[in-house]
Structures are given as C-alpha cells and as structure tokens.
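Can't attach files on this board, so I'm pasting raw text. These are the components:
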Amino acid sequence: MSNRVYIFDTTLRDGEQSPGVSLNANEKLEIARQLARLGVDIVEAGFPITSQGDFEAVKTIAREVRGITVAGLARTNFADIDRAWEALKHADQPRIHTFIATSDIHLKHKLRMTRDQVLEAAVAGVKRAKGYTADVEFSAEDASRSDLDFLCRVLEAAIAAGATTVNIPDTVGYATPDEFAEFIRSIMNRVKGIEKAVVSVHCHDDLGLAVANSLAAVLAGARQVEGAINGIGERAGNASLEEVIMALYTRRDRYGLETGINTEEIYRTSKLVSKLTGMEIQPNKAIVGKNAFAHESGIHQDGVLKERTTYEIMNPSMVGIAHSSLVLGKHSGRHAFRSRLVELGFSLSEEELNKAFARFKDLADRKKEITDHDIEAIVENEIRKVPATYEFTYLHISSGTTVVPTATVGLTRGEDLLEEAACGNGPVDAICKAVDKITGYHCRLVSWGINAITGGKDALGEVTLRIAENNKDKLYMGRGISTDILEASARAYVNAVNKMLHEKNAGAAV
Ligand code: KIV
Ligand code: ZN
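---
Top answer:
Structure tokens for the assembled complex are below.
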C-alpha cells in the first residue's frame, strides 16, 4: 500500500457551511490559490447546484487554479451532477464528488428511501459522473452510523460503477478513534475491489475527535483525509487539516506516511482563511493559535533559550511562523519595507505597495516599533478584495459619560470628500449612522468584535463586524485595523459596505 496520504481540502465547501460565513467568488479564488501554494491535492470548491454564486465560484476556481484537482459536490441525482460538471469542465483535473446517505436514520427520516433504492441511486450517480470525468469520488453520508454490511454493499457497487475514491464520513462526529479504525479496517477487508479505489475519511468534530479519528483511519489504511483549514465547517467543524498534516509530519516515526504539503505555507493559509471568513482562531489552537509557540512560565522560557526542543516539538518556522522581530520604524524607507514584505512572502503590485507603504508610515508615526505581525496586518488590510466605492478618510468622535456620542465621518468617493455627522447610542453606533448618511444605505450592525493583533499599549486592534441591509438577511463581513478601536470600527464598517455595494453592482451588471 502506498505511503502517500492525499489531502482533500473542503474549506470552501463544508468550511463555508459554518454559521455566519459567506465568501464571495474573489475571496474563494484567493483562498483556492493559497491552498494550491500550500500543496493540497484536492480543493473542493463548492456545491454548484446550491446557488448561482456557488456555481460561479467553482467555475472560476476550475478555470484559474491549475495543477491541482478541483472537486465539486453533487447529490446522486442527475441535475446535481450535470450542474457540477458544467462548473468543473474547464478544470485541469476535475473531480465530481457525489454522495448519498447510507444510515438507516437518514434513509427513514430524510431520504424516505429503501436500502435498495439508495444502492441504485449511488450506482446511477457514479455512472452519470463517470460519463463526464474519470475522477469520481463517492461518499456514503453518515457512514459511521450505517449498517456495515449495507455500507460495504454500497461501496462495492460504487467502485464497480467507476468510483475512484470512496469516502467514509463520520458526518455527525459520533465515532471514537479505536472504533473508527476498526470500521475502516473492516471496510478494507470486506469490500471487493477496494484496492481499485482510494479510501478517504471525512470526520466532523462534534466530540472534538475529528483529527484523532482521521489519524486512526490512516493507520487502518485510509489514504485520503478530508478537512478544513482551522477546522471550520458544519456545527463543530471538520478535521483541522493543519493538525492532521503536522501530526503526520511530526510523528512520521509512528505513521511512516507522507503528504505533498509545503508546511511553511500553513500559517499564511490559516490567517487568510480566518481573515476572509471572519472566524477568529482561538489563541490556544494547535499549530496556528497565537499561543501555540508561546512560552509563559520562566522554567519553560529558560529551557527553550537553552535548547528549543526542551518544550517545542515543532519549529515554528516549519509552519511558516516568522519570528516576530522588531524590524522597522518610522525612519525606515520604502526599500527596507519592500524587502521585509518579500521575506514575509508577500508579492505586491506597485500600486498595492504604495498603499501599504503609506499605511506603514502612518502607523510608524503613532507606534514606535513595527513588528512582522503589524506589517502582515497592514498588507492584508490594504490589498483590496473588492473595488472600494468609499475610502475611509477621517473620523472625529465626541463621547464620554455625560455627552451624547457623536461621530463626524469623512469618506472619499472618487475625487469627492463626503462628510456627515450623527449621534448614536454609543460611539460605534454613531459612526455607523454617519456612514449610512453618506452612502444612503441603512444597515444593521449584526456583530462586532475586537482582537489585539499585536502586543503592547500601542497594539494594533482589528475589528471584525457583520452588517446586513435593513429588512434583508444577507450578511457582509468587514475588517479594519488601527491603534484606535473606533477608527478600526469605522474602517471595518466601510469595508463591509463596500462589499455590499460591490455585490449589488456585480448583480446589476449581469
Ligand atoms: O459530512 C458529510 O458527510 C459531508 C459529505 C457530503 C461528504 O460533508
Ligand atoms: Zn461534512
């Protein structure tokens, strides 16, 4: 059996099913490109039948991201499969991923189908997909709660119909590692023709066991692991791919398996996914959390200074975490700034560099020491994901315990400076109202959160918020950074409004 484990990334499909997450096509493309740099084998770009937006995103990724397998999800019905193919057909290596549930619970309550009908639908779906592409994955949804005999019959029939990968999802995160390994072993032993297909697993994290279950499955013979960056996904999420990858690498003595992953891209990928989805990474998250390589106790610090391996099982540089050194300040020039960007792995156009440098200078006037984290935050905030209709220009706030909070906001649109003032229940409310007066759109602030990106009293604060137009449900996420949290809030709000306007304009152009 091969010792290569294929990494199947479903950040853009299952990951995007996380509550509150909605990525536009540009954001998905940016993540897909980064996943290709990370070296995942398969990117599941979406579920094309579910919406026009998902269809377009899969189509764009299929056309633009070459040298990697791009998968699209489809139920076993022909309309789903045809639509998936329509989106995927220009991919370098297209894969149709078709699924149907096999557990009695799903058959009885959701599908209202008999076992024979499910088996028939699975075979028909795989054959239909096979008519389009040689690379067909079949998933038996809720496999871990399915009757093993029936599941084996379905998998056998799917392989005979042409499935080249068979996926065994623990859809509701119910399995335990020992049990799941045994389950996979039984499938490997019982399903005729199993050697013709790659056995895959797709574990959810409802009991916090998704990574452990995935690793147990590879020990039992699975050779594809599905998961998402930062472990995002339905409910408690999917197996966290960076954890699976680093466990396989760090404990290769135990697993003896390889992936094609460029581990140094992990941290950047994780940050990008967090930024674009608006899902913060918990500080103690393994591999990519802000504390994952931080040593607090004096004994630990002393140990690491004497010999890193006393308390570190992985070198942070392996996952692409640059040591945060104090590199630049207000006297640093454009050349030094550009060199540091290159070292941090950014490649900016001249225009982007100019914007980022202007923000860096602005920040350096307010903050003595500019760290790598500051620079990353500036760049990621300066590179526009959508054309900005409004540019944040200035903010004045009058607030306190005895005055009505009032905000005056200046935004630039083209050549014009537009200014408005408004009162609110608090300063953030006043800012939002002033921006609304300028744009003419009335939006609800659905959520607001702040995160200190860097340390110290002059730390950069990053505000992530979500807005929706009054009487509408669609959410738009915005982010803004500044040493001043009210300015960060204003920047984030304007960013979200720009996304909303961009989508409206794109809709109007269709
Ligand atoms: O969790 C699940 O079963 C899935 C399938 C569609 C693979 O996401
Ligand atoms: Zn899933």
